[in-house]
Automatic annotation (TrEMBL), chain A:
Annotated PANTHER family: LARGE RIBOSOMAL SUBUNIT PROTEIN UL13M, RIBOSOMAL PROTEIN L13
UniProt keyword annotations, A-Z: Ribonucleoprotein, Ribosomal protein
Pfam families the record matches: Ribosomal_L13 (PF00572)
Keyword Ribonucleoprotein in record: yes
Keyword Oxidoreductase: no
Protein name, as recorded: 39S ribosomal protein L13, mitochondrial
Similarity annotation: Belongs to the universal ribosomal protein uL13 family.
GO cellular component, one term: mitochondrial large ribosomal subunit
Domain of life, source organism: Eukaryota
TrEMBL record, chain B:
Residue runs in coiled coils: none
Record-given protein name: Large ribosomal subunit protein mL66
InterPro entries assigned to the protein according to its UniProt record, in alphabetical order: Ribosomal_bS18 (IPR001648), Ribosomal_bS18_sf (IPR036870)
Predominant localisation class: mitochondrion
A GO term, aspect molecular function: structural constituent of ribosome
Pfam families for the chain: Ribosomal_S18 (PF01084)
Length: 140, 181
């Protein structure tokens, strides 16, 4: 963060932060919601617990993004301080003091797909067809 | 009291349906696309009409768009099906293509109707399921499931996307492959 600035240094606070919105609407691949488990240990004997991704997302919709970013960073002393510069919000509501300093936007990697019932009826009918019914097919 | 009323209502419904619905079995029912009923005076004429398909004008075929890709007629047994010949990279988000292979109740059409090869039928059938699970084809989804993902339970209610590479992950190796290193 602040890598483009000439005064950048890993231990220097350039004032740059990342704001992440709509974390409740994240999409996981395939069966990840019920296959992915998050491990936690209280430190006491028998204190291990595994929480599935959908259970964790029900409890805290920001936690999955937070853990993903935390895991992707190097495990050095700077990690906890860099994590302080990431703001995650479950919805679209962002506090004004954060919002007024936003200067740029990172494009989303995966565009949100269009639903069939949101496409107008005329466009669906006039779309080029690939499959045609055989002669003796009774439409259902 | 309520049970008596319910029973009465169901009885009335049954009698109504059995009287109104007429089941007429004509001989060659399969060769028909539409049954038409006409009534002139006391005569009731029921005729089966083979209608031209609405999709005929919009149909895209590889031999029309790019004839060089289609092999000559010498090897008929190796002729690819129309989906392989087109060579489209279909994803599970392409609902406009996938909805053509689906009945109005959301079921995938069988192979004798789609006329696809085995591999394409498997691929498109899986992608239809993916689109339905991701909630992209809400109007073409079987009625016994909650169509909108937001109304589903537990892990099903969150947004999901799929990778098309996972369709043929379980590849059964050829018998000749086991001698290869
Ligand atoms: Zn094929």
């Amino acid at each position: 963060m602040g890598l483009h600035k000439p005064i950048y240094h890993p231990m220097n606070d350039c004032g740059d932060v990342v704001v992440c919105i709509n974390s409740r609407e994240i999409a996981l691949r395939g069966e990840e919601w019920r296959r992915r488990a998050y491990f936690h240990h209280t430190g006491y004997p028998g204190g291990a617990s595994w929480t599935l991704a959908w259970e964790l997302h029900n409890k805290d919709p920001t936690m999955i993004i937070k853990k993903a970013v935390y895991k992707a960073m190097q495990g050095n002393l700077q990690r906890r301080h860099t994590m302080e510069r990431l703001f995650i919000y479950p919805g679209e509501k962002v506090p004004d003091d954060v919002l007024q300093n936003v200067s740029n936007q990172i494009r989303q990697l995966r565009p949100v797909p269009t639903r069939l019932d949101h496409i107008p009826e005329e466009e669906v009918q006039n779309f080029p067809k690939v499959m045609d019914y055989p002669e003796d097919y009774v439409l259902k | 009291m309520a049970s008596i009323i319910r029973r009465g209502v169901s009885f009335m419904k049954n009698s109504y349906i059995s009287s109104s619905a007429r089941t007429i079995v004509t001989t060659k029912q399969l060769n028909i696309k539409e049954l038409r009923e006409q009534k002139d005076g006391s005569k009731l004429v029921i005729e089966g009409v083979t209608l031209p398909s609405l999709r005929a004008q919009l149909l895209v075929r590889a031999q029309n768009t790019n004839p060089s890709l289609v092999p000559s007629e010498g090897n008929i047994e190796k002729k690819p099906c129309y989906m392989c010949a087109l060579g489209l990279d279909v994803k599970h988000t392409d609902v406009l293509i996938l909805s053509q292979f689906v009945r109005s109740d959301g079921c995938m059409l069988p192979r004798r109707i789609t006329k696809l090869c085995r591999r394409q039928q498997k691929k498109i059938g899986t992608m239809v399921t993916m689109a339905q699970k991701a909630g992209l084809m809400i109007n073409l989804t079987p009625g016994n499931c909650k169509k909108d993902p937001k109304k589903r339970r537990d892990y099903k209610k969150f947004n999901t996307y799929f990778d098309e590479k996972t369709i043929f992950m379980k590849r059964i190796p050829d018998q000749s492959d086991k001698f290869k290193r």
